[in-house]
Specification:
Blueprint: H1 2-21, H2 24-27, H3 41-53, H4 55-68, H5 83-86, H6 98-109, H7 127-132
Helix pairs in contact: 3-4
Protein name: Polyribonucleotide nucleotidyltransferase
Keywords: Membrane, Transmembrane, Transmembrane helix
Length: about 140
Amino acid sequence: MRIPSRVIGGVLVATLLTQLTACGTLFYPDRRGQIEGKIDPVVAALDAIGILFYVIPGLIAFGIDFATGAIYYPGGTTAQVDPAKLKPAIDADGKVDNAKLQAILESELGQRLPLNDPRLIQHRGSVEQLAAYGLVPAA
């Protein structure tokens, strides 16, 4: 009875270790939060290996990597827009109109950004940051 329990334990440990290494979220935590981009073939291959050996955990790894955005290559580019050009996107209450903001960013940067994507993480600025740009904070 001792050998079958060691085999089962070994298989369980191997399963858990391969799933921990097959998730791009663990390999590339800095990529989390991306919405789209080119798929990293290394992460996709590791997730596919998870599907090959263990169907359910492999599908979960793919799902997590797509949901967090860790499966995509990092963008690596940054852009800046003059805050004065962004003022038309802010209404009198201090709220941002995503459609106007998207149009301004598209004309300034030449790229279409998916601001209406439900996975987009929005951060609120502090009162000091808003005052530096001459904006009135909304209640």
